[in-house]
Design brief:
This protein is α+β, with helices and mostly antiparallel strands and 219 residues long. 30% of the residues lie in helices and 22% in strands. Strands 5-4-3-6-7 form a 5-stranded mixed sheet. α2 packs across α3. It starts with 12 loop residues before the first strand and ends with a strand.
């Protein structure tokens, strides 16, 4: 069974670099990004954790909490943080889960349910599927799932772009077109009739085809 957009994000308790949390309670009434890593002291993930720390204020401004995960014990994370700060210029300023029992990785279907053993005996390749980005909305439902290979660093600017779209379309009956960025034109949702759309957009819309209705981004 695979987690899908619209499913409830599995709740869990876990130890992190900022203490023990219960995920849904930790989220509160805002959004969250959970991004996972196969092991501490891995090169691509080192760059990712540093860059996420650098742009964390951009997530804060959108009421989005950030939390990482690594399939290693919490007591190893602190040493890794030193390397991240030394090489990337920023130390993680968000919690990192220690998933030494593989519980969260299994809940989010990144590792097989039968996975057991000492996480320190596992190689990054053993955990290569633990490279996901999950965006969770205030309703605790999954809004986005991205899975990356070990050799490709993640694009967190793209995650911010998607969050802008998710938050906009949660408030307004619109969709965002290809490569959309904040402030650009949007598309009236297909679920909105022309009559209803005229009430919201009395100046009309651009319509290259009847099913494409383009309007300025709602404010």
């Amino acid at each position: 069974m695979t987690l899908r957009i619209g499913d409830e994000a599995p709740d869990f308790e876990a130890d992190t670099t900022e203490g023990r949390i219960r995920f849904h309670d930790w989220m509160g009434d805002g959004w969250a990004v959970l991004f996972s890593h196969p092991k501490d002291f891995t090169p691509v993930c080192t760059t990712e954790l540093g860059y996420m720390a650098k742009i964390k204020p951009d997530f804060d401004s959108r009421n989005v909490k950030v939390i990482g995960l690594s399939v290693d014990p919490v007591d190893r994370h602190g040493e890794w943080f030193k390397d991240i700060e030394e090489t990337q210029g920023y130390a993680p300023n968000y919690p990192l889960i220690g998933d030494a029992d593989f519980n969260v990785s299994k809940l989010y279907e990144m590792l097989p349910a039968e996975t057991t053993g000492d996480p320190l005996d596992r190689t990054p390749a053993d955990n290569q599927a633990v490279r996901n980005v999950v965006v969770v909305g205030p309703d605790k439902k999954i809004k986005l799932v991205l899975a990356y290979p070990m050799t490709t660093g993640r694009n967190f600017d793209e995650v911010l772009r998607v969050i802008d779209s998710l938050q906009l379309t949660a408030k307004h009956k619109v969709a965002t077109p290809v490569n959309w960025k904040q402030g650009e034109d949007v598309i009236i949702a297909g679920s909105v009739s022309d009559d209803a759309a005229r009430e919201t957009y009395p100046d009309g819309w651009e319509s290259p085809k009847p099913y494409i209705r383009i309007v300025p981004q709602p404010r």
